[in-house]
Specification:
By secondary structure, the protein is of the alpha+beta class. The chain has two helices and two strands, in the order H-E-E-H. The longest helix is centred in the C-terminal third of the chain and has 84 residues.
């Protein structure tokens, strides 16, 4: 703790600081609560995405064997052309927002391609969309976590350090100034008493 001056100016400065800490603390606490709520919503969304992906994988298991057929499904059959993300803002935190993706499907001969090809492409698109959205939501979670950690540190700093420190400083200065005022009054009375005796 830095040494403080025991003056009226320092008393005013400490009172102003305490007032400022008390004014900003509720805002920080509100931001902390909002971030905690958003993190819970993000976790819920991630859980929904993982669950949807598992269901999709389960529903697609019977089709896995047909992918073993050679020459139909290659690396070029389906490509992500454009991954679309926007920007959002939660409690002052800039976050990416998933807006979808564009796919490119290579041309294939419908007469020579098995009937499962269209279904397989649709399911793979759905799986890729779920994976892409999960990546974006995980990034949102990381950013919100980082901001929550910083906000919690600030709340703790104000609550546990700055406000008690300012209160202690104010009390210390007030006691000192009160003692000085009392000593001044006593000295005045002594001086007044001493001049009265000298006049006799």
């Amino acid at each position: 703790m830095a040494k403080i001056k025991l003056t009226k100016n320092e008393l005013k400065k400490q009172k102003d600081s305490l007032k400022m800490y008390r004014r900003y603390l509720p805002t920080l606490m509100l931001k902390k609560q909002q971030l905690q709520r958003e993190i819970r919503l993000t976790d819920l969304r991630l859980s929904e995405l993982y669950s949807a992906k598992e269901k999709l994988d389960e529903s697609f298991k019977p089709w896995i064997a047909v992918f073993g057929e050679t020459g139909f499904f290659t690396d070029n059959t389906l490509k992500i052309v454009n991954h679309k993300t926007g920007k959002g803002n939660i409690a002052g935190v800039s976050i990416p927002v998933f807006e979808g993706a564009d796919f490119e499907t290579s041309k294939y001969d419908l007469a020579r391609t098995p009937a499962w090809m269209d279904k397989a492409i649709d399911v793979i698109k759905q799986a890729l969309l779920l994976d892409l959205e999960a990546q974006i939501v995980e990034e949102q979670r990381r950013r919100l976590d980082r901001e929550l950690r910083i906000t919690t540190q600030r709340v703790n700093l104000f609550e546990k350090v700055k406000i008690p420190e300012a209160r202690g400083n104010i009390k210390k200065i007030q006691v000192y100034l009160g003692d000085q005022q009392t000593a001044s009054v006593v000295r005045g009375k002594i001086a007044k008493g001493g001049t009265g005796k000298a006049a006799i």
